[in-house]
C-alpha cells in the first residue's frame, strides 16, 4: 500500500470511468492523503456514484476511506436524470459495465457539504479539494460557510474550456454545463483555483496498448481497470474518432493536485456565462480584468509524456 505523506485530498466525484481512474491515481500517489470522497451527480446518479466509489476503494484495499453523499441535482433544478450520452460513454453502471463486488459499506451519515466545511476548518491550507463533476457541492459549502473560501489550500477542478471548444456545445464543457450558476459562484467566491479543462485533458490520451499492460498483470484489479477503460476507449471511437484514444480528464486533475508542474497555467479571474446562447462558457471576467489579485489559474499546456508515465506507473503499481 502507498503510504501518503503530504497534503490532505478530497475528491468530489460523479464516479464514472475517468473518476474511477482518478481514485486509483490518488491512491497511488504518496504526495497526497485521500481523506474522503464526496459524491455528486453527472455521469451517474449520486447514489450510483457513491456505490461505485465505495466498491472501488474496497477493491484497491482502502475501505478505511469514507464516502459522503452530496447534492443530487443542480442548484437551479428539482431533479436530475442521466443523459443518454453519459450512459453511452460510461455505461449504465458508470464503470463501463465492468462488474466488481458491491461494498458492504454505505455513505457516511455526515453529508458532503458539511464534510467539506469541516475539512476546510480542520486542515486549512493543507487541504486540496478536487471536484471532477458539477460544482454544486462546493458552491453549497461556500454559501453555507463563506469563510472557507480563504481556508481551503487549493481547489483543482476538472471542468471548463478556455482556448478550445466545449464538448456539450461550442461554448460549454460538460461538468460546468451541469450547474453553470454553481460554477460561476465558485469562480467568483473561491480563491486559489486551478482549472484543468479540455484545453489540456484532451491532450492526455490512453489507448488499448496502455490497458493491455493492466491485463498483463493478471490481477482482479488490473482486469477491472482494463475492462472498464476499454469500454471508455470504444465510446471515444464513436464520439471523437479522430482523437486516437480516451481523454484522461479526471486523472489529470488529480495529477495536477499532487504535481502542479505538470501543467503551464494562465492567471485569470474566471466567470461562467449563465444565459443563452453562451450558457456554460468559462471565460475571463472583464469586470475583474485589471484586478491584480488573480484567483484562478487556467491550465493551457501540459507535459503529456511525463503525466502519462506517472499515470501508468502509479496505477499499474497499485493494480499489481
TrEMBL record:
InterPro entries: Inosine/uridine_hydrolase_dom, IUNH, Ribo_hydro-like. SUPFAM superfamilies: Nucleoside hydrolase (SSF53590). GO terms for cellular component: cytosol. One of its GO terms (biological process) is purine nucleoside catabolic process. Residues 9-309 form the Inosine/uridine-preferring nucleoside hydrolase domain. GO terms for molecular function: purine nucleosidase activity. Keywords: Glycosidase, Hydrolase. This is Inosine/uridine-preferring nucleoside hydrolase domain-containing protein.
Amino acid at each position: 500500500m502507498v503510504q501518503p505523506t503530504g497534503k490532505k485530498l478530497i475528491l468530489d466525484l460523479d464516479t464514472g470511468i475517468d473518476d474511477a481512474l482518478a481514485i486509483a491515481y490518488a491512491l497511488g500517489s504518496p504526495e497526497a492523503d485521500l481523506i474522503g470522497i464526496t459524491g455528486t451527480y453527472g455521469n451517474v446518479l449520486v447514489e450510483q456514484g457513491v456505490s461505485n466509489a465505495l466498491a472501488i476503494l474496497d477493491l484497491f484495499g482502502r475501505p478505511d476511506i469514507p464516502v459522503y453523499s452530496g447534492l443530487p441535482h443542480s442548484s437551479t433544478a428539482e431533479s436530475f436524470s442521466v443523459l443518454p450520452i453519459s450512459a453511452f460513454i460510461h455505461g449504465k453502471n458508470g464503470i463501463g459495465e465492468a462488474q466488481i463486488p458491491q461494498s458492504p459499506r454505505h455513505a457516511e451519515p455526515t453529508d458532503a457539504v458539511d464534510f467539506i466545511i469541516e475539512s476546510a476548518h480542520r486542515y486549512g491550507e493543507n487541504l486540496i479539494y478536487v471536484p471532477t463533476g458539477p460544482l454544486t457541492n462546493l458552491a453549497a459549502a461556500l454559501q453555507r460557510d463563506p469563510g472557507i473560501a480563504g481556508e481551503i489550500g487549493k481547489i483543482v477542478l476538472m471542468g471548463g474550456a478556455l482556448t478550445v471548444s466545449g464538448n456539450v456545445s461550442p461554448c460549454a464543457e460538460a461538468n460546468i454545463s451541469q450547474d453553470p450558476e454553481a460554477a460561476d459562484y465558485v469562480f467568483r467566491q473561491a480563491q486559489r483555483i486551478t482549472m484543468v479543462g479540455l484545453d489540456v485533458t484532451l491532450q492526455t490520451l490512453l489507448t488499448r496498448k496502455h490497458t493491455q499492460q493492466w491485463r498483463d498483470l493478471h490481477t482482479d484489479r488490473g482486469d477491472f481497470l482494463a475492462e472498464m477503460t476499454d469500454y471508455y476507449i470504444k465510446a471515444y471511437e464513436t464520439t471523437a474518432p479522430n482523437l486516437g484514444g480516451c481523454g484522461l480528464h479526471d486523472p489529470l486533475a488529480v495529477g495536477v493536485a499532487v504535481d502542479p508542474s505538470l501543467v503551464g497555467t494562465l492567471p485569470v479571474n474566471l466567470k461562467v456565462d449563465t444565459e443563452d446562447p453562451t450558457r456554460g462558457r468559462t471565460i475571463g471576467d472583464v469586470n475583474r480584468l485589471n484586478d491584480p489579485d488573480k484567483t484562478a489559474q487556467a491550465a493551457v499546456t501540459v507535459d503529456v509524456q511525463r503525466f502519462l508515465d506517472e499515470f501508468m506507473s502509479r496505477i499499474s503499481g497499485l493494480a499489481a
